[in-house]
Fold each of these.
Amino acid sequence: MMGCLPFFSVETWILLLTFICFFVIYSNRPYGIFEKLGIPGPKPYIYWGTVGRHHKVYYEDDVQSAKKYGKVWGTYEFRTPVLAVTDPEMLKTILVKECFTYFTNRRNFHLNGELYDAVSIAEDDEWRRIRNILTPSFTSGRIKEMFSVMKNISGKLTASMRSKAHNNEVIAVKDIFGPYSIDVMASCAFSLDVDSINNPSSPIIDHASKLFRFPVPVLILQGFFPILLPLFERLGVTMFSKTSTDFFKNVLEKIREERSGSSNPGDVLQNMINSQTKGNDSYSHKPNHKRLTDHEILSQAIMFMFAGYETSTTTLVFLAYNLATNPEVMKRLQEEIDSTFPDKGAVRYEALMQMEYLDCVVNESLRLYPPAARLDRIAKETVKICGITIQKDMVVMIPVYALQRDPELWPEPEEFRPDRFSKQNKQSIKPYAYMPFGVGPRNCLGMRFAQVMVKLALVDILQNYSFSVCEETEIPLEMDYKGFVGPLNPIKLKLETR
Ligand SMILES: *[C@@H]1O[C@H](CO)[C@@H](O)[C@H](O)[C@H]1NC(C)=O
Ligand SMILES: *[C@@H]1O[C@H](CO)[C@@H](O)[C@H](O)[C@H]1NC(C)=O
Ligand SMILES: *[C@@H]1O[C@H](CO)[C@@H](O)[C@H](O)[C@H]1NC(C)=O
Ligand SMILES: *[C@@H]1O[C@H](CO)[C@@H](O)[C@H](O)[C@H]1NC(C)=O
């Protein structure tokens, strides 16, 4: 017998068998926890868990699971037990009532590289301190101050569309909205004039879109062997692209150097820097309750770019798609635009924010396509909520995409119907059925900012142009299975001059 296996010594065999034993024993450990708790859900495969059981697109998978298992179910993301919840009473408790006590933190993959202290990743007191300092940068007063900057960029956007409409070009809508988002974010965050609308090859777009493209092998490896996370971390493995993070770090450091003293633009970066001098009672590299360290400022600024770019862009892309495929909605919206700003007049902030139908259209588009398909929280302690025990350290996941397409909450959920949000119908929307920006103290900080920049671009464009479907338009859309909610292939439409 041993003669057939000449290459392996006894020691090698022992090692190999030990490894196989470890592999098998380790594999089964996390599974069965939901069965014990009496929570339904798909049966896991070892190591792989229940990933992609019903559909390869993870958020479509959530829709199928919700149909099958109801409002609470258990899944295993590779080896990690994840409790999915769409029950409104539980959502209220998790996201709002017990946010500060049991559910303060998001799931942390620990491979955050430089961004470990970004507000979306920071935990507990750290998070609360950073969030409190950032909040004033996103009040409606501050956003109103940024409006003229946004308008300038939106003006460039519409100007760049003129020739495209004139030549009857087929456009990949992301190619126009991506540069718009980048330019708005860079201007409002750092007063940086990128003008990527007119210089589409600018490296900043490339880096901004790269950051959230998590490397799949790392995702799978950390999923299979979460106990190796500290090792990966020490080896410098990160989910966020290091070249892209470094790119923004250099840009920002240069801006800060140039901005010594005299100039004081009202951008997000300056608001953070100003908070440093306000809380001036010890060294600036030491955190205190009133201010951010230099590193923290850097992380917030980078996170703002990255979190804002992709989400605002896809929101605009889906709006264009929904309007092109629902021309009667677009017509009604254009009527509202024309009566609010007669004779293609300049868009004003207050009037824009008061447009009712526009708000319904944007909300309905975000209902069907919320950029973040899932939210999550970690339970700090074992806690019983609405009769369901949630164990310490368990991931609670809110499948927003599935929630917002739940046929019990949204009749004919696949239909694009802005009137769901009209004054008359709004009352029938159940609380906690709609959360494209999350809810509670840990909701999206940039919500109002995003709403303004999205509405402005949409109104400016629809004043002079209409979107229309063409042969190249994919209907229905095939969805992307990586990252944020998005189309697998670029959405292509045509522009018509009004
Ligand atoms: C935007 O602002 C720049 C100066 O900051 C100006 O030259 C340009 O004409 C403006 N563009 C639009 C479309 O308002
Ligand atoms: C802190 O305040 C002192 C005076 O009280 C001032 O000299 C110093 O420049 C301030 N430091 C910072 C970082 O603003
Ligand atoms: C649209 O959604 C936002 C938040 O997502 C909300 O504040 C607003 O009231 C909604 N508008 C309507 C008309 O429902
Ligand atoms: C829309 O068209 C009118 C003339 O038809 C023009 O004056 C205006 O600048 C255009 N607006 C935009 C945002 O392109």
Note: The mean pLDDT is 88.
Amino acid sequence: MDKTRHDSLGLEHTSSCNAWSLTISALESSVADHLQCPRSIPARLPSPSFQPPYPGFSVRFPQDVSQLVIAIVGSQHRPSVSPTSVAVSTSHAAISSFLASTRPSTPPSFVEWASVTDNRGYYNLCALAYWDGKSSYESWASSSGFKAWWDGLDADADSQDDDLDQGPGWFLEILSPTTDRFETLFNTDSAREGSSHFAGACMSSAVQEHGYWGSMRDRIPLSQTDVLSANNTRLPSPSQLTDSNADHRKKRITIPRHRNLAIIRSGQDWSTTTPEERKLYLQTMHPILQKGMDFLQNHGKEEVGCYSCRFMHVLDSETEKTDRTFGLAYFDELASLERWSKEHETHLAIFGGFFRYAQQLGNNVTLRVFHEVMVLEEGQQFFEYVGCHGDTGMLASRG
Ligand code: HEM
């Protein structure tokens, strides 16, 4: 007879769900040895001998990597501009020319292109570029000519204003967490995403800190000694434009820095699934996920502390969509992200849907999911927008 039990995520299992009760003998901590320290803040781990009900893995960086940089560089095109237009292609070429430049000695370790049409109908195209150190990023930005190009963009000339030029808006979002403010979780150790492309990076063995609410926090090394709260303190950026009543579409706007801003990039890859699983994913999971991302985009700020959410499609050429997506969301603090994932019906639907999906596949899931989460202090973030509409990225955090 099946025995019903509830695990740390509140999921109901029966003893016939064999794959969920597999024993993982050699669990390691998601927090790398050199980042472990005596805790002044208790972990959320249910018990020291806790065994997650399914395996999860984290990226390990070489010890000399203490900070990473993720630069999100994009163009924004008004609804009348087709994603396949010359205008979009020209923007892609402009950004690519810096990322692919052979001049810099420190090119990005990894670049990925992605796009989304936002809730105002604007097409946003961007590159996500990763460096394994801030000095590498800075050296690339100046030697490739990117910095000079970015600083020289003319907000008026490139405005989205209907009466002016038809040029795109531009955005630059630089996330540079130290490794003690960064965590990853993958459902497989064979996938490579984002920061796992760094030279010398590898995947951990199965980690202990997952499979319970609060495990994301436990995986962030600094949470051992810091509650990572925002306290709602916003510090002005050196070049901040304070005229919030002005038409942002004609402006270059630098966003005030937020204490302990929490960012998640949560990815899904169904490119290697069987035809049966692919169909199931697209018919069941993808719509629920879209609904959750729509909620965060349209109501996140007022209801759950999410300033911005883009549900992006990864591209393999200028416009060609792959079988990979990710949600990129900016929350006012980690506690808000935790609350949304644990309590809000939209993530609970995604989460519950996933376990039903797994059950339908007899727990033989080949869908790959991962996330990268970071909590940024003031000096580890830079958000600047040139001629973008007012709901773009962190522009939405104003007012
Ligand atoms: C198909 C898509 C998704 C699936 C299947 C999924 C499923 C899950 C699962 C199974 C967990 C528990 C992981 C563990 O600890 O072992 C989890 C945690 C979490 N998910 Fe999702 N999720 C998806 C998309 C997203 C997206 C797009 C976001 C945010 C933009 C998100 C935010 C979170 C957060 C923050 C946690 C950690 C909660 C904590 O440990 O406190 N998820 N999700």
Note: Residues 56, 210-211, 213-216, 264, 266, 268, 285, 289, 327, 329, 337-338, 341-342, 347, 350-351, 354, 369 surround protoporphyrin IX containing FE (CB under 6 Å).
